[in-house]
Amino acid sequence: MTQIQFLTFNIGSELFALEVLKVKEIIPIGTITAIPLMQPFIKGVMNIRGNIVPIIDMNKRLELDLDMNSKKESIIILSLEYEDEHHHIGFIVSKVDKVFTKESLDLESTPLFGSKVKKIFIKNIAKVDEQFITILDIERILDFDELSQTTQTIKE
Fold it and tell me: What is the pTM of this model?
């Protein structure tokens, strides 16, 4: 059996998780520079130690429309592979919570209904301390081909 560690975080009042192995670091929100013609869920870019990192507004990306006002807002920076290269991408969350470990066999499949998030963005469901946590499919949410489209390309 394979054990997997997950990082939990809130977007508004909703609790989500993703695999810890994809997390590079967690940073406070800094100056985000907007980029013209980007999709509405792309907040802009940040300079993080000399690297330009795109920042995603996960509330908009997941189409949740939740209240994000939180003094604990953070950016989770992920390291993802695309075309045989590692790329960094960040996303804004209301609060980073904790890490938990689950056996891969203990993960539940995606429910057919009852979620505020589109089914294609959900990888699994985990039950932790009598609470169900939605595990996001971060590769699908942060699809580099889709993210690189401009709003001008989408409208054509």
Answer: 0.84
